[in-house]
Write a structure and sequence with these properties.
Blueprint lengths: L2 E5 L2 E4 L4 E8 L7 E7 L6 E7 L5 E3 L7 E6 L4 E6 L8 E9 L2 E5 L3 E6 L1
């Protein structure tokens, strides 16, 4: 079992930055991919990006590529989502998940990100 806890959300003005953290406990991320997702009010949850824990390869959805960056810290068993040039449309609850593309086994509880215009 993997328990995931997100942190770092908050209120920021458009153009600002936030860094979200996803800390794992119970076991290491091992060979999983760790993904970030978001869900805005009235919308379906969408994929934001992911990183392969072992290899470090990353993938992003088009709307955040170039603005968001995912990194990992093996010593802290944590994954980070650095969000720059934030836009009001980035407002959502952000979740991290661990598993594989198309099969996300573990989810965190989410952290709210609000971007004001």
């Amino acid at each position: 079992q993997v328990q995931l806890v997100e942190s770092g959300g908050g209120l920021v003005q458009a153009g600002g930055s936030l860094r979200l953290s996803c800390a794992a406990s119970g076991r290491t991320f091992s060979s999983y991919r760790v993904g970030w997702f978001r869900q805005a009010p009235g919308k379906e949850r969408e994929f934001v990006g992911s990183i392969h824990w072992s290899g470090g390869s990353t993938a992003y959805t088009d709307s955040v590529r170039g603005r968001f960056a995912i990194s990992r810290d093996s010593a802290k068993n944590s994954v980070y989502l650095q969000m720059n040039s934030l836009k009001p449309e980035d407002t959502a609850v952000y979740y991290c998940a661990a598993g594989a593309t198309g099969a996300w086994y573990y989810w965190g509880q989410g952290t709210q990100v609000t971007v004001s215009s």
